[in-house]
Amino acid sequence: MIRIVLADDEKLIRSGWTTMLSLHDDIAVVGEAGDGREAVEAGTGADVVLMDIRMPRMDGLAATQELARRSPATRVIVVTTFENDQLVWGALRAGAAGYVLKRAPADELVEAIRLVHSRDALLFPDALRRIASPHVGTATPRVPVELTPRELDVLRHITLGQNNAEIAAALHVTKETVKTHVGNVLGKLGARDRTQAAVLAYELGLVFAGAQRPAPLTGDWS
Question: CB-side exposure of 159: number of CA atoms within 13 Å?
Fold first, then answer.
């Protein structure tokens, strides 16, 4: 069961989400919040929080950042009316695991909830690539010295939205090996999840917004 908290200053929006999510047996709404401070309190310990950006007392970006500090296992999906790339990028940097527009179909929202809860793949890699474009790092990648060539390769596949099985097939290794590498990548980058790792990959110049496939690497694979 995915325990979810709904944070939006409009009660009508929260009621609509509650009605829609009640149709799914694997999702349970366990709390609601009408502002950012309430979202932090209600969201602490939850599996997933649907977070509006513009709310009174504390906005959704600050609330997401505070939740990331207070409740690292909780995944935040920013749900916004505004197609403002700066706001969405700011939300991802604050610790959000993904974002969905409020006008998105209900099945898209449910899919997003299940995906971020599974932690097995990146949410909306194409959209992330697009909004990362103005934030891509220098032409010379600033590779963290502690990442091995294999870990860098896995990171590039993560930015494409591939899950562990797909990465394993691409690299001709087992899913267990990929899982180990993913854990090492997240740990060494200090990233909460795949989304945060992808954001860092763009900012460090390890991948570029126009890239469709990972660049081949050379080195000793482990």
Answer: 30
Residue 215 per-residue DSSP state: P
Task: Take residue 217 and report the two structure tokens written for it.
Answer: 């690497």
User: What is the number of other CB atoms lying within 10 angstroms of the CB of residue 59?
Assistant: 18
For Cα atoms 187, 132, 95, give the angle at the middle one, nearest 5 degrees: 45
Contacts of 125 (CB under 8 A, 6+ apart): 159, 160, 161, 198
Q: Two tokens at 96?
A: 């959000």
Section 22-44 average pLDDT = 96
Q: For the chain, how many residues are written?
A: 222
Amino acid at 57: R
Cβ-contact 2, 117 below 8 angstroms: yes
C-alpha atoms less than 13 angstroms from C-alpha of 71 in its C-beta half-sphere = 18
Residue 104 exposure: Cα atoms within 13 Å on the Cβ side: 20
Residues 6+ apart with CB under 8 A from 86: none
Task: Round to whole Å and give the CA distance between 146 and 52.
Answer: 36
pLDDT tens for each residue of 160-208: 888 999 999 999 999 999 999 999 999 988 888 888 888 888 888 777 6
Contact 209, 130 (CB under 8 A): yes
Q: How far apart are CA 199 and CA 191, in angstroms?
A: 9
**What does residue 109 show for φ and ψ, rounded to 5 degrees?**
-65, -45
* β-pair partners for 22: none
**Can you give the pTM of this predicted structure?**
0.79
Give the C-alpha distances (Å, rounded to integers) separating 49 from 29, 33, 76, 80, 219: 10, 10, 5, 13, 41
